[in-house]
Amino acid sequence: MADRKSSFEEFWPFYLQEHAQPRTRHFHYVGTGLVISTGVIAVVMQKWLWLAAMPVAGYFFAWVSHAFVERNKPATFTHPLWSLISDFKMFFLWISGRLGPELEKAGVPGSGHE
User: Is the model's pTM score more than 0.90?
Assistant: First the structure.
């Protein structure tokens, strides 16, 4: 596979480039937030079946954004674990206001405000 990355350090900038559109990232934030919320609710309420909804919530928003906003193939298909880790890394960098410099380092245009 030509698009396989050999390390997470190589994958991370690629991941950010594949999420260049702010709307794509926003869809991901919604999905990741729902995943976290669903997990917390499942544990607190001891509704273990809700855990099955976590991947649906996360991937639905992510894949919709790749299909209709970014118009590219989700990185999940080539690097499932690194993509999952990157979803959470991007989410928490965004929440903490530290995503902008990462986007700039990855060469994502117009990303200094995040």
Answer: yes
